[in-house]
Task: structure prediction
Amino acid sequence: MVSALLISVGAVSGISAFLALLMVIADATIANYGEVKITINKDKELDVKGGKPLLGTLMEEGIFIPSACGGRGSCGLCKVKVTEGAGQFLPTELPWLSEEERSNNIRLSCQLKVKNDMFIEIPEELFNVKEFRSRVSGLVDLTHDIKQVSLELIDPAEIEMVPGQFVQLQTPEYELTDEPVYRAYSVSSNTSDTRRIELEIRLVPNGICTTYVHNYLKEGDEVIFNGPYGDFHLRDTDREIIFIAGGSGMAPIKSILLGMVDENNPRRARYFFGARSKRDLFLTDKMKELEQKLPNFSFIPALSNPEPDDHWEGDTGLITDVVAEHMESGNNTEAYLCGSPGMIDACIKVLTDKGVPEELIYYDKFG
Amino acid sequence: MNSATIPIALFFAAIFTNNILLANYLGMCSFLSVSREIKTSVGLGVAVIFVMASTSMLNWIVYYKILIPLELEYLRFIVFIIVIAAFVQLVEMIIERVSEVLYAALGIFLPLITVNCAILGVSLFMVIREYSFLESFIFGLGSGIGWFLAIMAMAGIRQKLKRARIPHGLEGAGITLIITGMMALAFMGFSGMLPIG
Result:
């Protein structure tokens, strides 16, 4: 009896041990790609152990490529440009890459394994990108369709960012989506407060993320976001500043203005804010307050379709017309725009007509 | 002795009358998830053929040369799974190292089928039906080809289905299972021609 038991245990252990040994040997010989070098953006070099997917390899080195599915190859977000050393496209990558991306050597970093020296290109800003856990500490209705969401950071506890940058907010699985979805929102709060951020989110009918924020999110809920991203920020020059925004395009510009207050910025700045009617206007009191705090700042809200009972006495008309009316020569001006693609294109035309150099018009387009 | 013990008859029986997927309903998980496109189905199908043919031989050796002499037949489930998993892993590593083209076409699917029940099923049938070494190989090869044909048929149907108006609740796995059932009924028509086991 005992011997039968011993034989069975011994046999299974023996077979397993033999196979395990085979695997160990294979791992050390066949699957051993040794030390390989990943060169990022032609200047930063990483010495890593080969054989693992690029996404995970970079993550171990502290470089965080946005990925929603965590490397299962089902979200298609972790795209990276690999200029050398990638080999051919894998069938698991192809569904996520367009014709254009394929010819540009864009690869899905969670599927692509690092087997030899590689040259990759990733946006500089990603070096600073992290994933944050946070808690909703406030939800305020700014207008009938824009909510201000305050997030208190849990882990990491602080975020370093430049006013005007944005983060990607995660919407977890719920009625409208069966996998986590990420959407980008500009931070509207003062970025010198590194422990919390504020976002302004406008409800888009049937929008996965905006519907979640407006109808499901509650105070105290935990929210995951990653960031910061974007190069929309105030340039350090002496030129006059024109800000133009519409709707939730308020957010990054408010953040920039708060930053200007902190450094007591004396530059002349004008902020044109376009809305349909009075019920789409918000934070006008806050802007009035900023006019007091900043020596050379004025806020110019304009309504395109004021309702009769709005009793509106400010500027009316399309934001482009209002800008054209207020502006003299734009030769010594730089401009920062945030709003819908249509609005931005129209504004760029007006500004260049006024003489603002096109390369000094910075914008954040959102769909 | 029945007709299925003639090697060539066994081969065709494994493909058609006793199709591992449609007659025994084994290997459904990867069948359902990968049968969306013909191209990927081919890759997975070839991988299954290869793994079934080789693991049936390997497991035959393990069973008759190790387990039977030690009177440990009852451990076959565990041992077969370990052997299959290790073998698939090794093959994947080797393919990845040796040929990039082969890895992209075939190797990438190997981890998917490590725990495929059809693979284990073939090894267990081999024991139940007391196949010889050659018969095990033929049965494994035939079953793999049968599975390959089944997933190809399904991928073809599903590509047509993309343009069909399927009731919302049946989209995806639902309609695929119904179609698999209908295909299985059709394959039942063969079953009297070449009995097996």
